[in-house]
Amino acid sequence: PRPFRPVGGSMSVVEHVREMAAAGLHSNVRLLSGLLLTMSGNNPELFSPSQKYQLLVYHADSLFHDKEYRNAVSKYTMALQQKKALSKTSKVRPSTGNAASTPQSQCLPSEIEVKYKMAECYTMLKQDKDAIAILDGIPSRQRTPKINMMLANLYKKAGQERSSVTSYKEVLRQCPLALDAILGLLSLSVKGAEVASMTINIIQSIPNLDWLSVWIKAYAFVHTGDNTRAINTICSLEKKSLLRDNVDLLGSLADLYFRAGDNKNSILKFEQAQMLDPYLIKGMDVYGYLLAREGRLEDVENLGCRLFNISDQHAEPWVVSGCHSFYSKRYSRALYLGAKAIQLNSNSVQALLLKGAALRNMGRVQEAIIHFREAIRLAPCRLDCYEGLIECYLASNSIREAMVMANNVYKTLGANAQTLTLLATVCLEDPVTQEKAKTLLDKALTQRPDYIKAVVKKAELLSREQKYEDGIALLRNALANQSDCVLHRILGDFLVAVNEYQEAMDQYSIALSLDPNDQKSLEGLQKMEKEESPTDATQEEDVDDMEGSGEEGDLEGSDSEAAQWADQEQWFGMQ
């Protein structure tokens, strides 16, 4: 058979393949190129080296489109080998300069593009080292912005921070409005002023871009963990009429309120963002967690279903569904859903926290510790990651490790109500540091009198000291401007201690109306109803016996219950 060459002015078969590839007819390209490659294998003279290279690339592209990444990599590798042979032959036989050879070399698929596609395949196959190796092999001058961006992200993930910074800067040099590259630099502790200097020329030359320097400033605060200033700066941006109702800014605000322990404002901003964009996925894992923590399990279930309808290829729907399972005390299911989320996105902090919390509640503390440490590596400014790890240390009686970690957090994230309370929580575990815990909690409550976690811990301390009246005053004060299931329940416990039974029942009822799944409020209410029900002495005796046995049961279960409650409370980001 004679080689495939066009007759007269007609197109060659390889040009037909190229046209179909350009037209996006991937399944057609796959079939035809597969048949042509077999023909080429059976008769090597049929196609020229450059035609074989093209066929291999187009065939690999169609495999890539079908998500057959391993197969695509092998075909791309063969294509690059063919290109090497082609380069050698063209060096040996220099082009005579005839017009026919020029268009062919112009329309050959780019070798750099092939390497980029290979790197994409490797990342899909979770072979990041291979992806870095292939992109690293491209000389710096030949790297396109997307190659630099991919390299920067891969370096960052591998912990090669200096190389990552260099690559992000290269992206910005080529494309000064690459905002994700800006975020990448800020996340690697590059100063906001330095990043802003790289975009200053473009801000000055294009109208209506004056907000960009404020935007950079805001995210610089986000990445240094200065939540208050980040919130104020984003609010100032959001108030500008041109950027009002921007979903990304609202999502960032919601996340910042969450980090600052202001769950009510966080939920509010997530709801606002969701109303503006019903297909929003980013941040919905945190939103689902907050709803679950508030006992709104039906809302969590609905959110999970809605997110699965939008995309099951993102981590968020799996995390939301996992939160529902976790708060329904189905820990092994939560563990599975968390693992699935991590599989889809290994950078999902919320998935790591979910899986870590589930492992801890299942008694697999050492495995849980690994997950919390990875979450800390990914989000060093998020307090909830440290809280999860400290809970693990306390669960395994490693008070010294917990104390070291809490002190480190206190030093690195600064002395705010959250870090003070976290340190106090550890101090409460050690009889020697009870007074220190008291001082820390008082400081925290001076800064933020409504900070629920600090109130809960202070109440715990007062309960130990049997200062019930002080506890009641503290809780009433905290409940003046907010309603929280845990606070109402603890107030109920304190009222029982001072024999205010009727009001105690009211408090338990309010707690259950806020969270119908709150087991401890239910137990408190049931115990009080039992006390009220006896009608004669014999029954009374029976009830006393029941109560006695119940109380013993309570004492026996108190550690695990307290641990369980602490898990739920301390389980990532919370109030």
Keywords summarizing the entry:
32 helices, 575 residues, mainly alpha, single chain, elongated
Structural class: mainly alpha
Average residue pLDDT: 83
Biggest pleated sheet: none
Give the end-to-end Cα distance, rounded to a whole number of Å: 77 Å
Helical content band: over 70%
Helical run tally: 32
What is the beta-strand fraction? under 5%
Please compute the radius of gyration using only Cα atoms. 31 Å
Number of strands: 0
* Shape by Cα distribution: elongated
As residue ranges, the low-confidence spans are 92-105, 535-575
Pathway: Protein modification; protein ubiquitination
Biased composition (Basic and acidic residues): 523-533
Organism: Atrichornis clamosus
Biased composition (Acidic residues): 538-559
Describe what is shown at a glance.
With 575 residues, the chain is mostly helical.
Write up this protein.
Helix 23 packs antiparallel against helix 24. This protein has 575 residues and is mainly α. The protein has a domain at 199-262. The radius of gyration is 31 Å and the shape is elongated. The protein is 75% helix and 0% strand. The relative contact order is 0.04. The chain has 32 helices and no strands.
Blueprint (SSEs and pairs):
Elements (H helix, E strand, L loop, with lengths): L12 H10 L3 H17 L6 H17 L3 H24 L8 H6 L4 H14 L3 H9 L8 H13 L3 H14 L4 H9 L4 H6 L2 H6 L5 H14 L2 H13 L7 H13 L3 H14 L7 H10 L3 H14 L4 H13 L3 H14 L4 H13 L3 H14 L4 H13 L3 H15 L3 H11 L6 H14 L4 H13 L3 H12 L5 H13 L3 H14 L4 H14 L4 H34 L5
Pfam family, one: TPR_16
Protein name: Anaphase-promoting complex subunit 7
Pathway: Protein modification; protein ubiquitination
